[in-house]
Amino acid sequence: MVLSRGKITIFIIIIFAAIFFAGSFDFPNYWNKAAEKFKFTVFGVKFGMPNFPDVPFHLGLDLQGGTHLVYQADLSDIEEGDWGQSLQGLRDVIERRVNLFGVAEPVVQVEDSSKRLIVELAGIKDIKEAIRMIGQTPFLEFKEERPSDETQRILDKQKELEGKQMEEIEKIPDWQLGFEDPYFKPTKLTGKYLKKSQVEFDPQTNKPEIGIEFNDEGAQIFKELTEKNVGKRIAIAIDNALISAPTVNEAISGGKAQITGSFTIKEARELSRNLNAGALPVPIKLISQQTVGPVLGEISLKDSLRAGISGFLAILLFLIIFYRISGFFSAISLIGYVIFILAILKIVSVTLTLAGIAGVILSMGMAVDANILIFSRMREELKQGKSYLASIDQGFHRAWPAVRDGNFTTILVGLILFGFGTSFVKGFALTLILGNLISIFTAVFITRALLNLFPKEKSKKWLWLWI
Fold first, then answer.
1. Residue 318 phi, psi dihedral angles, 5° rounding
2. Sign of torsion, CA 198 201 202 203?
3. Contact (CB, 8 A) for 306 and 356
4. Counting CB atoms within 10 angstroms of each CB, which of 165, 234, 269, 275 has the fewest?
5. How far apart, in whole angstroms, are the C-alpha atoms of residue 467 and residue 450?
6. d(Cα 206, Cα 209) in Å, to the nearest integer?
7. Nearest 5 degrees, angle CA 78-CA 262-CA 74?
8. For 139, phi and psi rounded to 5 degrees?
9. Mean pLDDT of 122-132
10. CA distance linking residue 145 with residue 314, whole number of Å
11. Which pairing describes strands 107-111 and 116-122: parallel, antiparallel, or unpaired?
């Protein structure tokens, strides 16, 4: 469908107005300074142009500094074959946990070899509070009662180790037995299977308790555990502290249970909230804390911006030299792309890291590729003897499938990275997806509208200036 010149003009006016307001939103200081000069006061009421809100860009740890924490995971009660799964579960829980602080794009990594968890929190002001909140994440586990002979062996071993130094203890056969709980042994049922928890009240005593519900896998494990221990006690421990040890009267299906104890209402609510935030599948201990300064990030940001601006100007120069007026129109649409993507990054509150900046620059390259494909097709149409207007229409029509498929596959890869990646990978994927969506609009629709703004046929003498 070919739009009339009047409609194209209206479309371009709207686009340039959008670019102006998006640019003022990106860098509001220029607009706000000018707006202040035209404000006046009448009867105590100030009139004039409104100011744009000064919304800052959200920067990641590598650009603004923050906190670097290292935790050691305790996998002593986990079978070796389940270590990898437990560490990944630990990473997922902590990542959810730190997001409660408003930390966008936290870096949470696990080192399988050392069984350590690395947490990087960008821009955290109260480091002690962050450490305290992460440390409060409870480790919930259910333990089954040991047979009396096992209990006696452990008690005997503890008596044998009593009063000895560690060097002496390690020489005693099966010395590890003396450090185990003599009355209860761990089971597979831990907080990793928790679906939700909530504060409830005992109908008889009206005392607060915590009702918990497991997911499907946890419900099945809980049912098997209660079936096996009818008439015996099952201990409920949080952070290795015994909370309650009720006796199982019958197998419990449905995956629901209650944690009872001497809770105040405040303690019960806090425990329930922390369990919902993510009960850890394994215990952790803070072994290292480091504050990361923003100096290195500032240098990296300046270098990245300098490289990005230099590359951007080189691209504009290339387009204008090789494609003349069409290249100039393409350069305008590319400037619009940069302004729009910066505004979107602010609106969506995307955390910018070096990886995220790379995603923006890569999508800018996709926008340039789209225009080059279109202009190349237009030149081919002109060589076949078609008119200027026909070459524009056919150039965009024939280049569109390649532009569409190229951007679609890139967006698809970005969605996969965003769905399965973590931290910096997600930041890169998000900026790549947003950048590609905006680049399709600016590279195809804005450039085409600018070219169609001059609908008359060009004489062969001046046609080389246009394409």
1. -60, -45
2. negative
3. no
4. 165
5. 13
6. 9
7. 15
8. -100, 105
9. 69
10. 73
11. antiparallel
Give residue 81's identity as a one-letter amino acid code: G
Of the pLDDT bands very low, low, confident and very high (cuts 50, 70, 90), residue 412 is: very high
Query: Could you read off the pLDDT of 186-244 as tens digits, one per residue?
Result: 888 887 788 888 888 888 888 888 888 888 888 898 888 888 888 888 888 876 777 77
For residue 310, give every residue at least 6 positions away whose Cβ sits within 8 Å of its Cβ, in sequence order, or none.
Answer: none
Return the amino acid letter for 367: A
As a whole number, the mean pLDDT across the chain is: 79
Residue with tokens 């490289």: 307
235 is written with which tokens?
Answer: 């201990």
Q: Is the pTM of this model over 0.85?
A: no
Rg (CA), the chain: 32
